[in-house]
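Section: Multi-chain targets

For targets with more than one molecule, the full set of components is provided together so that the structure can be written out for the assembly as a whole rather than chain by chain. Components appear in the order listed by the source. The example entry contains two components.
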Amino acid sequence: MRSIMGDYEETELRLGLPGAGGGGNEGETSRNSSGKRGFLETVDLNLNLNNSSDGNQVEDMKQKNPIPASTDSAKPPNKAQVVGWPPVRSFRKNVLSVQKNTTATDDNKSGGSSMAFVKVCVDGAPYLRKVDLKMYQSYQQLYDALSKMFSSFTIGNCGSQGLKDFMNESKLIDLLNGSDCVPTYEDKDGDWMLVGDVPWEMFVDSCKRIRIMKGSEAIGLAPRTVERCKNRG
Amino acid sequence: MSEDEELPDLDGGAARSINSTAVSGGGGDQNYVSPSPDQVLENVLENVLYFLTSRHDRNAASLVCKSWFRAEALTRSELFIGNCYSVSPGRVTNRFKQIKAIAIKGKPRFSDFSLLPPDWGAHFANWLRAMAASYRALEKVYLKRMCVTDEDLAITAHSFPFLKELVFVCCEGFGTDGLAIIARECRHIRVLELVDTDVTDDEVDWISCFPDNVTCLESLIFDCVETPINFEALERLVARSPSLKKLRLNSYISIRQLYRLMIRAPQLTHLGTGSFNTSEIVAQSEQEPDYLSAFAACKSLICLSGFKEIIPEYLSAIYPVCGILTSLNLSYANISAEQLKPVIRQCHKLQTFWALDSIGDEGLQAVSVACKDLRELRVFPVEALEDVEGPVSEVGLLTISEGCRKLQSILYFCQRMTNAAVIAMSKNCPDLVVFRLCIMGRHRPDHVTGEPMDEGFGAIVENCKKLTRLAVSGLLTDRVFKYIGQYGKLLRTLSVAFAGDSDLGLKYLLEGCPKLQKLEIRDCPFGDSALFAGLHHYYDMRFMWLSSCKVTRQGCEEVARQLPGLVVEVIASGEEENETNEYVDTMYLYRSLDRPRPDAPRFVHIL
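Its structure, encoded as tokens over all components, is:
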């Protein structure tokens, strides 16, 4: 992990792709064991994205993976998720995730197992968005969704190609050196990290908010820079 | 132009016209100059029109002749814009000079379900610019599904020094920064309501921005604002707001904090209880506040909501008010039938009840026994999924129909349903005005007979003679549309999804329902020839939405060509240049008095 603030044993500096080479929870199966593919398979660069539903067009309100009813074996396999169906507004889904928190002491608003909403800000964009990280199974899907979300407001090379390049090891250094955008996130400890370092599942659990910043700022994020990030957050 | 049930009650206070005809008296009779007939007419009109508050009546009056048009325009004080793009702000400010209250609706309703890409439009700024110049005396602003920025709020605060009411429903684009400006600068604000509105956390303590003196606040609703609140400041605010009647707190307010607020405001009539949870571990020995007595002190509390993170054991605290409640919203409370029963059996005056399906058919049974006066019921799903077992079914619907005969409005999410139950409701509840049934599994038939749900919905339109709003679901063939076209003569709003077999379905609707105003359809096999069947009617509609259907671009262009007063938008669903697709992703059409909007983003093509 390219941790800005700390230096943890299992988080040595590495340029590998998320999950490749055994970073952290390799082989950990996804929480919803409902036929979703295992973590490693989804992070393969030759991503087979045909299980993502029609257009990752907008953010918070896509459906969770349906859990198959155990009773009826004659039922067809999980239907593809459909955007906006059933027609329940995001406010209902947002809060319901908190209902599943049995511990009243925890202030964590996104603690439920079903949803993980985080704010996304893009440097220079006039608005913030929210995404539900549990809607995606991989960094690639997240990047695609973010690109579309902010596609009407382009910041240099922050199109989906730019973000895809971020996953490509050889272009990574170029990106960081250039003024292209780099996705960073604040984790549970309040540290600002580069998106893509940890396995997807770990990222979903620890990410509190996302900020897409200019590459030049992201290089060697020093504590001072981190403070600026936090203030603008 | 249908009355949306969520539209608030805008007062009629028309500005009294100061234009009075002076009868030039003085002198002898031979010098008496009687006022001209026109002036008499205008005088009468202006004084009579003063009493006309319904916009439908006013619209009719304005059509009589030019002088009536002028007089009406001068005396209208409330404006309702059902579609912000149907008319340009300039045209409105030119015609109406004395507006004190305005309601503007923006995005189509399906945008609530992510079917509209962001940045589609509905920017309040366009309207604000025109209004700031013309309506300095503006007192009330109601916005629904509009994009509002912090800057807009700043301009609003500066431009309308007499602003009293600001209501946002399903809006987005601003944050606590904007709220702080409103709190600080709108000295006369009485009503500040945020409903299902996305407010970004700019980490600003907006509650502290209200002025220090006694306020005239009557309604403060912020239950959807998901940001921490400075509680001490809120407590002081409530203490210095003696007129406060409506207070809806967000989930950052714990039940202990709720208690402290309630004892300061026993005059409340509407209360949103926040989290109804404790944010800290309560030690065994520690005394908990007497929540029961706090509720008992609220002698006028008729509307209760909130319970956003409820600990069910606390629910008994509301017993003292159950007997007077007319509205109870438990739709964020994941409670069981057993937990509901002791509460609901005391709510004999209840007219509005919203709940989660966690209460199950058994909970609904308890409702049907206790709430004989029920007018509106909404049952939301805890799990909004397609392939799960649902706790409510046709059993719950049937029992409600048998117990709550005065039912007027129902929204019911379920996993399985039967025609028989729906037919029974159509007969038991003849006063139904709104019937919205969402069987969450797409194309799901009657689970007992295996038949489509045509007969059930057919019975609703046939038997419920007052029906104006309908939402259908489940397995449906063209036949259900035949029924709707045949019987739905008062129908104004219709929502259709995953239904129908062919163009005939849509044709039946467009040819049969003369009052149809708002038609939203997704994922149905309706194509161009069905589209053309509505050409005679589109000018009378507020809008029609068709997404993931079978209309082609050529079809849309043909409609646009034949109806120049219509704006036909083809909206791409966010994919990159998708020229290869035979059918358009989304078509959204609406009438407009002016040229098409200049602010359409690049994924919207106006034909």
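The two ends of chain B are 25 Å apart (CA to CA).
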